[in-house]
């Protein structure tokens, strides 16, 4: 070793945090009516996509959610209700808990109390904007049809950061889900 050069022992905790965002994170925003589409998606996804999935659904703040139990039955992927500062890992499906908002911080999901001072609750926009800021082109945003505009600002943020954005519509309601791509690259490839 050269004089004046010291070697630091690697911090094993720091290695566990994916600072380089080396895998895509798929954020799915929905109202209660999106459960069928998410179920169909999970039934058709292999458990080893190399992506993390985070489901942000509008939930009643007063009732315990059974989403984790329901979705865990249709996939071999690990399905977890988010706990504060949970590390985001590939091949996992995370579900928002009731009465919370979420943000991404240092490769973890940070839980925040749902704001009571707002007229409208916007958990999808809050999370999608946070994901766009941290994961840039590694962010994928999916909005499932709902009754309000929550998620539109977040989809725009993901698109502006270089990520992919999708919206799903089901029309008529009893027909299979149709996936619609809303992402357009800023530059078209040269011919």
Task: Tell me what you see in this structure.
- There is one protein chain.
- Strands 3-5-2-1-8-9-10 form a seven-stranded mixed sheet, with helices on both faces. A three-stranded antiparallel sheet has the order 4-7-6.
- The chain contains five helices and ten strands.
- The protein has a single domain (19-181), classed as Rossmann fold.
- It is 23% helix and 26% strand.
- The chain is of the alpha/beta class and 191 residues long.
- Helix 4 runs parallel beside helix 5.
Supply database-style keywords.
5 helices, globular, disordered N terminus
The CATH superfamily is Methylesterase CheB, C-terminal domain
- State the CATH topology: Rossmann fold
Radius of gyration: 18 Å
Oligomer designation: single chain
Poorly predicted runs: 1-18, 174-191
CATH class type:
Alpha Beta
Counted up, domains total: 1
Helix content: 10-25%
The DSSP helix count reads 5
The number of strands is: 10
Estimate the strand proportion. Answer: 25-35%
SS-based class = alpha/beta
Q: Output mean pLDDT.
A: 80
Q: What is the spatial order of strands in the main beta sheet? A: 3-5-2-1-8-9-10
Q: In this structure, how is the largest beta sheet organized?
A: 7 strands, mixed
What string, H for helix and E for strand, traces the elements in order?
A: HEHEHEEEEEHEHEE
Beginning-to-end CA distance, first to last residue: 52 Å
CATH architecture group name: 3-Layer(aba) Sandwich
Shape: globular
């Amino acid at each position: 070793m050269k004089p004046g050069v010291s070697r630091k022992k690697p911090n094993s905790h720091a290695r566990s945090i994916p600072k380089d965002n080396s895998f895509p994170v798929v954020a799915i925003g929905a109202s209660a009516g999106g459960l069928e589409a998410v179920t169909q998606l999970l039934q058709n996804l292999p458990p080893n996509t190399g992506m993390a999935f985070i489901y942000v659904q509008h939930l009643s703040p007063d009732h315990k959610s059974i989403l984790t139990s329901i979705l865990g039955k249709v996939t071999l992927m690990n399905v977890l209700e988010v706990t504060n500062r949970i590390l985001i890992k590939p091949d996992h499906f995370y579900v928002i808990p009731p009465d919370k908002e979420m943000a991404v911080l240092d490769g973890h999901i940070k839980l925040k109390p749902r704001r009571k001072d707002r007229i409208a609750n916007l958990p999808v926009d809050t999370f999608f904007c946070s994901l766009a800021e941290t994961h840039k082109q590694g962010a994928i945003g999916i909005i499932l049809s709902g009754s309000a505009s929550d998620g539109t600002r977040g989809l725009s943020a993901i698109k502006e950061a270089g990520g992919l954005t999708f919206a799903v519509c089901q029309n008529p309601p009893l027909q299979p889900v149709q996936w619609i791509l809303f992402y357009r690259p800023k530059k078209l490839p040269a011919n």
